[in-house]
Give the backbone structure.
Amino acid sequence: MGLIKWTTSPWGQLIPEHVAWYLIWVAIIAGFCFMIVHALYIRAFSPRKVFAKNEAPVAPEQVPERVPRHSLAARIFHWVMAAAMFTLLFTAFLPKLGVHFNWILYHWIAGVVLTISIVFHVIHSSFFQDAGSIWPDKTDIRDAFRRLLRFTGKPAPPPTRFAKYPLENKFYHLCIVLAGLAVIGTGVFMLKRINTPFFTRNPYVFSDMTWGLMYVLHGLAGIALIALVIVHVYMGLRPEKMPITKSMIFGWMSRDFYLEEHDPKRWAIKQSKQSQKKRGLAASDAD
Ligand code: HEM
């Protein structure tokens, strides 16, 4: 029951063939265990979010009713990536679980779509968005310790409200980046093993050992993505997370949710000229 299925090359060398497929079940079970434990925890403790007072509170009137969260481009990227990801997971693993079909064709096409969408995302988020907002900062780490101390009954000041993304989301993003880059990095080379309009098939560009290791990494990262995707979908469907999920569809979240969970100093809202104008009018009306 090793993690890797080994084989012997025509020259008698022991080489890795691919990851052991029982790990698919390990990932599915791990994902479901996370769901059950998390749901029970929320039910048993119904943790109430307690935050410190905002250092620079804003008056609700200063915040638009609909707080813009995801641009149209970011939303399109997210759903294209999700469609590619599900196609990749189903085409990769259903055949391993006994459902046979011409999976390689759909798999590599979805792989290319995922690769292009990620390249787009990296450029878009680096040059047209606040790229730093998805990486943990000092306040996140300090607040994580504060939450841990408070959870264990020790005295600690309450944490501040979140910036655009809570630490959990940032950590999740980091995991998906690592697993995603691993499947893409290896998948692009694996296109050389099959016939596609992009490359002529040439399985001899690497040694058997290098290919074997590449297949193992591709499979391991892919299997990790099963668990990561289960956790992501579960979190997105949780009632208290619905405002965040809806914002990935409609692009905005409500003012109440923003003021409740976010710190305007850490996530300042860029207001559209239209909404500024509207409030200007409202103020002069009130005058
Ligand atoms: C969620 C992401 C992905 C998952 C879960 C995944 C999973 C898998 C698995 C389990 C295999 C079978 C490997 C084996 O038999 O050892 C495979 C094969 C393959 N994958 Fe992926 N993969 C993903 C992304 C990608 C991407 C992004 C590309 C291309 C850019 C890609 C290209 C390929 C190719 C070409 C093969 C076939 C190789 C062959 O049959 O020789 N995959 N993938």
In short: The chain has one domain: 19-48+66-272. The pocket of protoporphyrin IX containing FE is lined by residues 18, 85, 88-89, 92, 104, 107-108, 111-112, 114-115, 183-184, 187-188, 190-191, 193-194, 215, 218-219, 222, 225 (CB under 6 Å).
